[in-house]
Amino acid sequence: MSQHDPLRLHVPEPTGRPGCQTDFSYLRVARAGDVRRPPVDAAPVDTVDLAYTLIRVLDEEHRAVGPWNPQADPQLLRRGLRAMMKTRIFDGRMLIAQRQKKISFYMQCLGEEAIATAHALALYHGDMCFPTYRQQGLLLARDDVPMVEMMCQLMSNGRDPLKGRQLPVMYSYKRAGFFSISGNLATQFIQAVGWGMASAIKGDSKIASAWIGDGATAEADFHTALTFAHVYRAPVILNVVNNQWAISTFQAIAGGEATTFAARGVGCGIASLRVDGNDFLAVLAASRWAAERARSNLGPTLIEWVTYRAGAHSTSDDPSKYRPADDWQRFPLGDPILRLKRHLIGLGAWSEQEHEQAQAELEAEVAAAQKEAERHGTLLDGHIPPLESMFEDVYKEMPPHLHDQLQQAGA
Ligand SMILES: Cc1ncc(C[n+]2csc(CCOP(=O)(O)OP(=O)(O)O)c2C)c(N)n1
Ligand SMILES: [Mg+2]
User: Fold this and answer.
1) Closest CA to ligand 1's atom 20
2) What's the pTM?
3) C-alpha distances in angstroms, 321 versus 99, 159, 167, 325?
4) Which of 240, 309, 310, 339 sits CB 3.0–4.6 Å from 328 for a disulfide?
5) Residues with a CB atom less than 6 Å from ligand 1
6) Are 269 and 263 in contact (CB under 8 A)?
7) By percentage, how much of the chain surpasses pLDDT 70?
8) Which atom from ligand 1 is nearest to the alpha carbon of 314?
9) What is the pLDDT, as a whole number, of residue 359?
């Protein structure tokens, strides 16, 4: 007879059941300013402690403290605040447009706005992001792409630059350093590492920025990308957005329970940071640190951005089925917009009146863009790209079988 108890498989607790409060103590939230900032040429092994803590700049009183304070010009921070506000307004309006059936599908980044908008300010023109569907802030922070054009894509109308061939939100803007979004999770990571390697092989100075969610790190592509980034010292920033959820599964299911996602990086020989993703200043500082490393040929950096997905996963999802309604309010890192607003007010570089005015201006700007986009049609009124466009842009010269199909379609 065996002296051992029967084996049992450990299954992570579904912490966020409706009616049962999510336990956020696993986050081990460090005090702002307490975490050291190593030189950008630090060896990966010298970042091990930074992968298990949380880099924060804004303290309880919303002051910028500690070695990671990026000492940013208040003018830049005001720009960042407006970019976050614009992103939230844009998302809010597009969500309503989806409910009105003007758009087939939408995904918000509510609560995560600081990550993409601050990161965008640390990159140079010509760098290439390989985003997921929740980094619209990269585009909205930089104004390289007019909102009208983004909305025409969302509405799959006659001015949709992608001619209805991509799901709404899956933008593609080579000119703005925004690689075509693929719905196949984690492909972004291997593609970004490959792009970064190509940049180095060509002797260029451009860097890549790869994006993935907590859930998608369970894909093999994530681990393959880390191995290649480490071995070839690819000039790439490896961003892991830990927003606590992968649709309805809590991040523990992807392996974040007893360790961190940043720790994956140091385990592979990659310098790694774990950062408060709702702290605009910390995001800016960590992004600049990683960008400088990559640009100076010092190798890749993995950054885990700790944040909270405050909205539904997508317009096809109902989070009340799997998490308590007040989860976001209880999340210890707060709202990124409120935190930067209070910081700027504390500096004397912003006020409640200016905030209200900016809110009204941005709402008007987004509403005007929507009106203009809707002039070219929405999903509701059937102003879609012509049928023959379905056959175009695949081959330089259309092969006979596609010619036949085009004729059969009567276009
Ligand atoms: C390879 C692959 N598997 C599954 C899916 C379906 N899917 C789409 S989004 C998603 C959850 C992703 O969660 P996470 O990586 O945490 O990103 P988040 O949505 O939280 O930003 C899943 C399972 C997919 N698109 N691709
Ligand atoms: Mg997630």
Assistant:
1) 246
2) 0.96
3) 19, 37, 25, 10
4) 310
5) 132, 134, 183-185, 213-216, 219, 241, 243, 245-247, 309, 313
6) no
7) 98
8) 19
9) 98
Residue 1 has pLDDT above 60, yes or no: no
CATH of domain 32-315+347-382: 3.40.50.970
User: For all residues of the chain together, what is the average pLDDT?
Assistant: 95
Token pair in block for residue 22: 């999510």
| Candidate from 27-36, 187-196, 236-245 with smallest mean pLDDT | 27-36
The residue length of the chain stands at: 411
Mutational pocket test of ligand 1: of 110, 185, 315, the residue with most ligand atoms within 8 Å of the beta carbon? 185
At 55, give phi and psi (nearest 5°).
Answer: -80, 125
- Cβ of 369: how many Cβ atoms within 10 Å? 19
Q: And the tokens for 391?
A: 């056959």
Instruction: Please give the torsion angle defined by the CA atoms of residues 108, 110, 114 and 120, in that order, rounded to the nearest 10 degrees.
Output: 10
- DSSP string of 248-298, one letter each residue: TEEGGGGT-SSS-SHHHHHHTT-EEEEEETT-HHHHHHHHHHHHHHHHTT-
Query: Residue 208 C-alpha to ligand 2 middle, in angstroms?
Result: 21
Token duo for residue 47: 């970042």
Q: What is the per-residue pLDDT for 13?
A: 73
User: What is the rounded CA–CA span in Å between residue 170 and residue 245?
Assistant: 20
How large is the average pLDDT for residues 235-240? Answer: 98
Which of 247, 264, 309 has most ligand 1 atoms within 8 Å of CB, for mutation?
247
Domain boundaries, the chain: 32-315+347-382
Q: Is the pLDDT of residue 309 over 90?
A: yes
